[in-house]
Amino acid sequence: MATFVRILFTAVLVTLAATGAQAAEQASRDLQALKQNVLDLNRELTTLEQQLLYPSTQVAMFLSIDVGTPIRLVDINLAIDNKNVGYHFYSDQEFQALTKGGIHRLYTGNLSSGEHTLRATITGYDPQGKDYQRTTAYKFVKGAGRKMIELKVVDDVETRQHKFEFKEWSE
Known about the structure:
Layout: H1 2-53, E1 58-65, E2 72-80, E3 83-89, H2 92-99, E4 103-110, E5 114-125, E6 131-142, E7 147-156, E8 161-170
């Protein structure tokens, strides 16, 4: 009888050990899944916090010129809200790239939300070879996302001069 009790006791211990090992493995898997869920939630909360606390204040200003334009751009001076933010002198090579469809990023910076005024002063030569200097102003509203503005110098066939067109993108 004592041998039977020992065998039964050993069988119960082996069964309990096997069941305990399976339960421990399942608990380990559940714990790993819970840890991964916590990490994913933390990543999402951090991203949301960054978006709420630090909305994108970035503004980018670009310049382009009509392809094959007869004008010659020499330089541009850029101001936002009467504060100079950029100046660029165009070499012959840069100007040729612009006339072939290139776009030049003039300015990238940060700006608060609200209404702003962009002022660009362009110096160059008109189609008749005369010096000119023109200033154009453009009002825009900066929202919470990124704002991109393109200033395009376009030929005006009727006046044989050029005009400025603005295009905005927001993210």
